Amino acid sequence: GPGFLTLSSFESEVTRSGHAMAFLKNNESGQSHFLLWGGTSSIGDVAEVLRQSPQQREGVDGTFAQVTEAGEAGLQGFSTYFSELTPLSDDDAGRRRFLLTGGVRASGGTMQKPREDEAWILVYSEDGVKSNISIFSAPGFGPGRVFHTAASHDGNHLSVVGGFGINSCGDQCNAFEAITDGAIRFWSSDAHNNASGDTSAWSDAPDAAGFSVRGGMAGQATSGGTVLLLGGEPTLDNFGVDADSIGPAIIEVYTPSNLFQL
User: Fold this and answer.
1) Is 45 left (phi over 0), alpha (psi -120 to 50) or beta?
2) Which pLDDT tens digit goes with each residue over 54-84?
3) Distance CA 100, CA 76 (A)
4) pTM (two decimals)
5) What share of the chain is helix, strand, coil (3-state, %, to 5)?
């Protein structure tokens, strides 16, 4: 019946907070698999796959499986918090792809300033029961940010909207401000594939001037390519006190201009 199931033994390899999760697939029996990234300082457990059990209601919990990292040299062995993980179209070999954007890293138990150009393509594959991820850079992302929206309706064109960054202090501080320069960024899979490592896959949205800068909103891409944006805050100072300051932007439907370039 309705309600919540108690999953007493359904445990991840590590405790996570501020991690990203995205749908991977449904298997032949209809059970769902999800990819988890980050939210932990345990570098050997940055990525996991959650596999639903076909006997959940009978008390047989699902499983978490570790993921082996590979890919571009130097990109393994890091973790981020508060990133966005957006599904992309499969590659030519049929492997699942995701675009990981933004987030912060931790050092000595302290969150660091969001770094510029924190964007990666994750390519997921399976070899029997073994799960693998290959990590590749997606250069040109621009200002580091957290609590943004990253949405794609077709798996090839992505819009990164809003978010908070740190513009005017050292590596460790809490002066988060809404992103103003590059508040909306576009990414193109085709341009990335043809870019040979340069930054041309990313561009500033020409329609960003109409955006009420903010972060912390909920965002969802529709099948037609528009993005529904709900809520958000212009600053983390006095959080929640002056929510009306963004005026009509409490609920918006954003139509990215790159829709008309497809």
Assistant:
1) alpha
2) 776 666 677 888 899 998 877 888 999 999 9
3) 14
4) 0.87
5) 10, 35, 55
